[in-house]
Amino acid sequence: MAFNPEKFIDEAISEIKKQVGGGKAIVAMSGGVDSTVTAVLMGRALGKNCAAIFVDTGYMRKNEPERIKEIAAKSQLNLRFIDAHEEFYSALKGIVEPEQKRKIIGEKFIRIFEKAAKEEKAAFLGQGTLAPDWIESGSGLRATIKSHHNVGGLPKEMNLTLVEPVRELYKDEVRKVGKALGLPELIYNRQPFPGPGLAVRIMGEATREKAGIVREACAIAEEEIERAAKEGKMLMPWQYFAVLLPIKTVGVLGDARAYGYTVAVRAVESFDGMTAKACPIPPEVLEKISNRITRELKEHVNRVVYDITSKPPGTIEWE
Ligand code: XMP
């Protein structure tokens, strides 16, 4: 049977009301389609008994905090903005192993949400977990591919009851719900972004400096790919971004020897994120991305490579 977003919305709202009762809830809002849909559903179900919490981890996309404030205002969400840069950078100091990074980030998020919940007197935490998040995080007979921060990354002891209205949905379905909720296309058609943010696009230690580099590189890749798609030079990929590698290579900067980092550009076609195929980017677009990254980040990056791996055997993100 075809998915009916309007029916889903009615059922989700009454489910949330039933679960939370007369209690209070907070909802984690990152600005992506999943968490925004969750926040709007919870806002509709609970009104002023729900506060949307945005945690600025220091690993957000360029201009994201400003964008979130705008979205929340337009959707009449009661938004609380928490600046947690320092906390996240210091928790990830010296951490290079991807699963450990994800677990630390998941735990930090939960501790911050627990504190916010206490202040808001809320006993429930809403989050935009989708079906692929818990499927890939492993349960029962399934193997853990990677711990999505909002599933396998959750600490064992948690004092909040989860509200996950979209946990049975896939990406294409949550987009339909977003559209039916009246969200702007900019949100419901937005490309996915991993919960742990740019931290999983920095291979190795996710320092503040590297977060700044990958943030710029991602913004350049996004801008150029979106421009090329708008100009009809390529199809709009399902997801597209840049990854910062810990490998330094030799290059030339002016007349001098340079020794800088490598950035990988990735664009994929997918339906639900469970499988993916590298998306062809025309050579002139790749060249423009490479030129801009090596020029605008010349102090740090002197080489750009293009990832052509499918999922499987790769995953979409590199960590
Ligand atoms: P992978 O890298 O596993 O990613 O092929 C599949 C899709 O999920 C996104 N992703 C995440 N989403 N929390 C999320 O909400 C996470 O921890 C997470 N990790 C990966 C990824 O960007 C891709 O769209």
Brief characterization of the structure:
This protein has ten helices and nine strands. 40% of the residues lie in helices and 19% in strands. Helix 3 (64-74) links the parallel strand 2 and strand 3.
Provide keyphrases for this structure:
single chain, 319 residues, four-stranded mixed sheet, binds xanthosine-5'-monophosphate, alpha/beta, 10 helices, five-stranded parallel sheet
Describe the secondary-structure layout.
Layout: H1 5-20, E1 25-28, H2 33-46, E2 50-56, H3 64-74, E3 79-83, H4 85-91, H5 98-120, E4 124-126, H6 131-136, E5 161-163, H7 171-180, H8 185-188, H9 208-230, E6 239-253, E7 256-270, E8 276-278, H10 283-296, E9 301-306
Parallel strand pairs: 1-2, 1-4, 2-3, 4-5, 7-9
Antiparallel strand pairs: 6-7, 7-8
Helix pairs in contact: 1-2, 1-7, 2-7, 9-10
Bound molecules: xanthosine-5'-monophosphate (XMP).
Xanthosine-5'-monophosphate (XMP) binds next to helix 6.
Characterization of this structure:
This protein is of the alpha/beta class and 319 residues long. Helices cover 40% and strands 19% of the residues. It has 10 helices and 9 strands. It has helices at 5-20, 33-46, 64-74, 85-91, 98-120, 131-136, 171-180, 185-188, 208-230, 283-296, and strands at 25-28, 50-56, 79-83, 124-126, 161-163, 239-253, 256-270, 276-278, 301-306. The chain has a 5-stranded parallel β-sheet with strand order 3-2-1-4-5, with helices on both faces. Strands 6, 7, 8 and 9 form a 4-stranded mixed β-sheet that branches. Helix 9 (208-230) runs antiparallel to helix 10 (283-296). The longest helix has 23 residues, at 98-120. Xanthosine-5'-monophosphate binds next to helix 6.
